[in-house]
């Protein structure tokens, strides 16, 4: 694989018709800091300059995680302006995936939590390893999903499942995610890359203009609601970020202990 942009956090490779993007911070379970989010936007711009491109994949480096969410340690000390910039950047990165000219396939090789699941849900299709675990654990940190989870989870699973997963913060196995419509295909961990390639080839050999126009129309079918929902999500995320419970939730994560919430 050839690194064409910041080789520490986002790698790209592939061939004439397929681009592979890898989030590369395995020691932090590929958590999304500013470098990763900016790198992802740049990588998407770069690979789409290739006219022959038909499909993009996104995966996480290592065997443990796709992406374990927004970078909690990094977020914890941010002031109001910086956190607003960060959440807006995260939402821009998710929109860049959603608005890519060609279908984007999330290859979920491990934990897809919080911002990581949100990243997967911004992709067109989610293929998961049977070892993957998925969830929106933000309420355990005193916050809500901030990169589109309150909107895109509903789109994928319906509101009942979205409520259950977001209120409880629970992690679910890939097989359950498949039953719920949260992921589209589950493949054994050993065969994940082959499974992803087989699916990409299904797209690659179809009429490219038809696939790309279908992608646009499918996106536009719910775009108006999505955009206003995303705006309200940012505002609510920023309000919650000022609370004592958020400080306690993030501190507890970093100290590897249970949080004690007070509703303040
Ligand atoms: N941010 C920053 N660092 C993270 C991280 C995250 N989201 N997730 C994991 N890490 C780090 C850990 O702090 C740890 O670092 P150290 O080795 O320096 O201690 C390293 O990655 C390995 O993680 P663990 O030791 O915790 O590994 P584990 O196997 O015991 O647990 C896990 C794995 C269940 C995924 C656990 O790491 C975890 O719960 N991570 C946090 C998941 C989460 O809450 N995500 C949501 C973030 S908020 C968000 O995403 C908001 C939004 O919508 C925008």
- Stretches where pLDDT is under 50 for at least 5 consecutive residues are 1-6
Question: In which order are the strands of the major sheet placed?
Answer: 1-2-3-5-7-10
Helix and strand succession?
EEHEEHHEEHEEHHEHEHHHH
- Please work out how many helical segments DSSP would assign: 11
Which molecules other than protein and nucleic acid are bound? Answer: acetoacetyl-coenzyme A
Largest sheet: 6 strands, mixed
The number of strands is 10
Instruction: Please state the structural category.
Output: alpha/beta
| CATH first level | Alpha Beta
What is the residue-mean pLDDT, rounded to a whole number? 96
- What Rg is obtained from the alpha carbons, in whole angstroms? 18 Å
Helical proportion? 40-55%
| CATH architecture name | Alpha-Beta Complex
β-sheet strand percentage: 15-25%
């Amino acid at each position: 694989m050839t690194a064409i942009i910041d080789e520490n956090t986002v790698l790209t490779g592939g061939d004439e018709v397929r681009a592979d993007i890898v989030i590369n911070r395995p020691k932090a379970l590929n958590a999304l800091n500013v470098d990763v989010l900016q790198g992802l936007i740049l990588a998407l711009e770069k690979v789409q300059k290739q006219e022959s491109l038909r499909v993009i994949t996104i995966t996480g480096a290592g065997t443990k995680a796709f992406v374990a969410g927004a970078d909690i340690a990094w977020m914890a000390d941010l002031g109001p302006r910086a956190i607003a910039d960060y959440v807006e950047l995260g939402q821009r990165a998710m929109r860049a995936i959603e608005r890519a000219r060609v279908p984007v396939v999330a290859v979920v090789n491990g934990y897809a939590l919080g911002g990581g699941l949100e990243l997967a849900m911004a992709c067109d299709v989610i293929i998961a390893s049977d070892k993957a675990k998925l969830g929106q654990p933000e309420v355990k940190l005193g916050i809500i999903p901030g990169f589109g989870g309150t909107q895109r989870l509903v789109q994928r699973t319906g509101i009942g499942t979205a409520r259950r997963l977001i209120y409880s913060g629970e992690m679910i196995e890939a097989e359950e995610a498949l039953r719920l419509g949260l992921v589209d295909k589950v493949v054994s961990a050993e065969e994940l890359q082959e499974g992803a390639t087989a699916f990409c080839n299904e797209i690659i050999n179809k009429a490219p203009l038809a696939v790309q126009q279908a992608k646009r129309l499918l996106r536009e079918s719910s775009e108006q609601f999505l955009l206003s929902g995303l705006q309200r999500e940012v505002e609510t995320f920023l309000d919650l970020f000022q609370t004592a419970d958020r400080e306690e939730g993030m501190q507890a994560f970093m100290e590897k202990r249970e949080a004690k919430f007070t509703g303040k």
